Amino acid sequence: MNLKKIMLRMTIYICMILLLCGCWDKKELEERAYVIGLGLAKNHESNKIDITFLIANPEVGSQQSGSGSKEPAREIITITANDFITARNTANAIVARELTYDLLRVFVVSEQLAGDKDFIRYIYDATKDREIKRDAYLIVSKEDPRVFFTNNKPKLETRPHKYFQFMITRGIETGLIPDSDLHRFFRVTESDDDLFLAMYATTKLEKGGKRGNEDEYLAGQIDTEGTSNQTQFIGAAVFKEGKMIGKITGQETRISVLLDDTAELNDVLTTYPDPFNKQLRVAARVIKKQNNEINIDIKHGPPKINVTLPLTIEILSDPSMVNYGAHEDKKNILKKHLENVISKKIEAFVNKTQTEFKGEPFTWSAEVRKQFKTIPEYKKYNWMKVYPDARVDIKADITLGEFGKQEKVPNLEELRD
């Protein structure tokens, strides 16, 4: 055998050995404890924080585990520590397996800690740990995260990672909660131009509940009965400069999403007052097919903001039985009525952002930034400071879509005769 063939074989053998060495640090599934949720709360006896680990059992619900598995689907542990990065080693004094944040999906922060000026110090540790992904969601809970995780007992989905995945995805689609991942939180906080909206949730229900329309609630206000899980996701916590300053309802959250062209709505079902009977409400599906028309004038005194909101609305009920689909004049009355109602609701919420929150969560700052040649010029203008004095004009441009599977309904008076 010549020298060239010997060298070639040796090279192949060495490459194969190097490839096999890639498994030296592998970890088996059963050797790790996967943290699905991380809870942060203020510790009242020290400058530390209470950290709650929601640990999922990956074997529960899997085909390999079989039907005879008696292991719980989750484990909840709370410890007091300086940060949630080094706290993993402390937790291993209790948990046998190595804790990992590879599958971390949610940060649940108590309302008290979210409103603390030092909250920003703790949450920014998430930018340092390589295992924590920026697409993890930020949730503000009314109660301590330990209580939130303990009381959260879904009936149909025992695996905690699937429960949060389904709950959050569906809530964002309906617009009742905002899309509040860590990437957006850090970007909005660092730009210091807009307000940030985080999901609001709770397992503590208010006594007596609140009687409102379908989206006029905060988490905990929906009066429910039955055997289902008591956890509610609706509404948003408002953050300004990395600190929680207030809360908004599910309806106000939907308005925020409609006015923000960077957000999406896929399935919004709501009701509006019936123009022909004030005691009834018309069910509708709201569809946003194109971006808003935004015109912001900052060159002549206080900013003047004009927004046209193009919406397609499908009518799903006809409680007054006037047959909208069969009469063009009634269609026009309904169209003008909806434009008026929606515009007034939006204007009321925008006014709230100016007077109460002193900032806007609609990313209008992006439109303002385009009018400056350099970033220093834009920063000097200070959009958040001038926004409360802006004159805002909102107009809803409604296009009526379908009127249900069967457009025509019987005449109510004829049925009663």
Distance between the termini: 108 Å
**Largest sheet, strands/sense/barrel:** 9 strands, mixed
Detail the poorly predicted runs: none
| Molecular shape | globular
Total number of distinct structural domains: 2
Q: Tell me the helix content.
A: 25-40%
Question: Helical stretch count?
Answer: 13
Strand content: 25-35%
What do the pLDDT scores average to? Answer: 86
Structural class: alpha/beta
Strand count: 14
Using only C-alpha atoms, the radius of gyration works out to 27 Å
Order of helices and strands: HEEEHEEHHEHHHEEEHEEEEHHHHEH
Secondary-structure map with pairings?
Layout: H1 3-20, E1 32-42, E2 49-56, E3 74-81, H2 87-91, E4 98-100, E5 106-110, H3 111-114, H4 119-123, E6 137-141, H5 145-151, H6 160-174, H7 182-191, E7 196-202, E8 232-240, E9 243-248, H8 250-259, E10 268-274, E11 277-287, E12 293-297, E13 304-315, H9 328-357, H10 365-369, H11 375-381, H12 383-386, E14 391-400, H13 412-416
Parallel strand pairs: 1-4, 1-5, 5-6, 6-7, 13-14
Antiparallel strand pairs: 1-2, 2-3, 7-8, 8-9, 10-11, 11-13, 12-13
